[in-house]
Design brief:
The complex is a heterodimer of chains A (276) and B (252).
Chain A (H helix, E strand, L loop, with lengths): L3 E12 L2 E13 L3 E5 L6 H8 L7 E4 L2 E4 L2 E2 L5 H7 L4 E4 L3 H4 L6 H12 L4 H14 L5 H6 L7 H13 L5 E5 L7 H18 L2 E6 L2 H7 L2 E6 L2 E7 L9 H8 L23
Parallel strand pairs in A: 3-9, 3-10, 7-8, 8-9
Antiparallel strand pairs in A: 1-2, 1-4, 1-5, 5-6, 10-11
Helix pairs in contact in A: 4-5, 5-7, 7-8
Chain B lengths: L3 E12 L2 E13 L4 E5 L6 H9 L4 E8 L2 E2 L5 H7 E4 L13 H11 L5 H11 L16 H13 L5 E5 L7 H18 L2 E6 L2 H7 L2 E6 L2 E7 H5 L6 H9 L8
Helix pairs in contact in B: 3-4, 5-6
The chains are: A alpha/beta (276), B alpha/beta (252).
């Protein structure tokens, strides 16, 4: 079953220096699966994720031939309709907990805010649900974390709090934008297994945006490789090592490997035709 | 005699009347022309060791010697001629309102070195930047280009030792490869000694001859490159770091 289908998505910014096309004709569809979007900085992967929620501010402009989520036309939806979708149906986990949590609000208050405002539940019920959500992301001491301010949490804890916050309304689609890039490798593995578990048990669709090919290959079912605003290759994650496109191959080859020979790493020779 | 000797180094910060022991009793030694790596999670004290060498963190115990001599406090000009550091974030470590020319010429002016013009052109060429970048500002450069400027700045005084604090972790994979290649080439050409910090085991393995694994401010295990490649580490922590390394993921 298709949860989200996107056809010919374009994002353009009208800047002083002329039109900048951040996303140039991206099409994909997503079921209840884990889809990875990989690319380097500036490839348009984050813009693609944000477009689905229509979270691009002027002068940025979103255009698409089709962008349908569960039968709802996202291009035609009114702003109140979009607000109703953001959170309960489609949630997004941002990259850096340092910048995405409110620094002057206790974690508990931030977790409960949505429940109180949107679902109009009692304070006690909101509190109980927030604790539950923190437990779901394996925070051992949820009561203490509820009382903490974001700066009192480590990066891994902050990231888990953001995931917990997004999962409270039980969305159908989760867009995770570099959810583990700010984390240490050991914590990274933990956060990924939490996400993986949630996707499996709740049957969510997941769009996982990352610059790390190896991570995506291990974690996702399908991978889109983006370059300069376009999808250059789409492949099953298990076939990544047999990637056809020279850009994908180049990205894989330029990574150092443990126990590899220590000759100069192959550099990525960008072919002008990839961007066409 | 090793070029850099660190003996029972401790660094303790006092914050809100509370002691934070960032580094506890760490010893290591780096031979001349060797490349030594420090790995560990954030908060393990690996960067603090580099900062302590430069005098940017309070040394509360132990000794740091370079060429057998204890380093002076404050570090002074002689130290700057010998040891230079490259920081993690090229967006934060270059002065945003100074041109590349000014950033690169400052160390020369402080040390009263002649031939500024020619040295700057040479430095830009050495790190693979076009000389036309000389009068640009950092915001006009990409992350990889800025890190090249930071490396050029560190090399202006022709030091023997480079302290590298996560020099590529803010960069894209392809740019990381170019920067690592640049560092390897400069080390070979100039006979530099590297003390390098990274959380990425694959990067450290690619660049370093010996590796010290750190956790919670303490040294956990020292590994040779062969020991790492053959996964013959003896401590559980070093093993878990190895297992979680993204590099292993494709095999898993």
């Amino acid at each position: 079953m298709t949860l989200l289908s996107v056809k010919n998505l374009r994002v353009t910014f009208d800047t002083e220096a002329g039109l900048v096309q951040a996303v140039r004709g991206v099409s994909f569809h997503l079921g209840r699966e884990r889809l990875g979007i990989v690319g380097e900085s500036g490839s348009g992967k984050t813009m693609t994720g944000r477009s689905v929620l229509r979270l691009i501010r002027p002068p940025g402009k979103i255009e698409a031939d089709e962008m349908v989520f569960d039968g709802i036309d996202l291009m035609r939806a009114s702003e109140p309709q979009m607000r109703a979708l953001r959170g309960p149906r489609i949630a997004m986990v941002m990259q850096d907990p340092k910048y995405s949590l409110n620094p002057v609000m206790r974690v508990g208050a931030q977790l409960m805010e949505g429940l109180r405002q949107r679902d109009r539940v009692s304070k006690a019920e909101a509190h109980a649900k927030a604790i539950q959500a923190l437990e779901a992301v394996q925070i051992r001491d949820p009561e203490r974390v509820m009382e903490a301010y974001p700066h009192e949490l480590s990066g891994g804890m902050g990231q888990r709090v953001m995931i917990a916050m997004m999962l409270i309304p039980n969305p159908d689609l989760l867009i995770a934008d570099e959810p583990t890039s700010a984390l240490d490798v050991t914590v990274q593995a933990e956060v990924l297994s939490i996400l993986d578990n949630l996707v499996k048990t709740r049957g969510m669709g997941l769009i996982f945006i990352s610059h790390d090919l190896r991570l995506v290959a291990r974690f996702c079912d399908r991978v889109l490789v983006m370059y300069k605003g376009r999808i250059v290759e789409e492949l099953a994650a298990k076939d990544l090592m047999n990637a056809k496109h020279p850009y994908t191959q180049g990205l894989l080859n330029c990574l150092p490997r443990i126990g590899g020979n220590r000759e100069a790493l192959p550099s990525l020779d960008r072919d002008a035709s990839w961007a066409l | 005699m090793a070029l850099i000797e660190i003996e029972n180094l401790s660094v303790t910060f006092i914050a809100n009347h509370r002691e934070v022991r960032a580094v506890q009793d760490v010893s290591l030694s780096v031979e001349a022309r060797e490349s030594f790596g420090l790995v560990g999670e954030s908060g393990s004290g690996k960067s603090t060791i580099l900062r302590a060498i430069c005098g940017l963190a309070p040394v509360t115990g132990g000794q740091i010697r370079i060429e057998g001599k204890p380093i002076p406090t404050p570090r002074g000009k002689g130290f700057a001629r010998k040891v230079q550091m490259v920081f993690q974030d090229p967006y934060a470590s270059l002065h945003p309102r100074h041109t590349i020319d000014r950033t690169l010429s400052e160390p020369l002016a402080i040390h009263g070195l002649k031939g500024t013009d020619q040295r700057i052109m040479q430095a830009l060429t050495d790190v693979g930047l076009p000389t036309s970048f000389r009068f640009r500002y950092p915001h006009q450069l990409s992350g990889g280009q800025r890190q090249r400027v930071a490396i050029a700045r560190a090399l202006m005084l022709e030091p023997e030792i480079l302290l590298l604090d996560e020099p590529t972790s803010a960069l894209d994979a392809s740019v990381q490869a170019e920067t690592l290649n640049l560092l390897s080439r400069l080390r070979a050409e100039r006979g530099l000694t590297f003390l390098m910090v990274s959380h990425d085991l694959a990067v450290i393995d690619h660049m370093c001859d010996r590796i010290l694994v750190m956790q919670h401010g303490r040294a956990v295990e020292e590994l040779s490159r062969d020991a790492l490649a053959s996964a013959s580490m003896t401590t559980d922590y070093a093993r878990s770091l190895f297992a979680a390394s993204a590099d292993r993921m494709l095999d898993g």
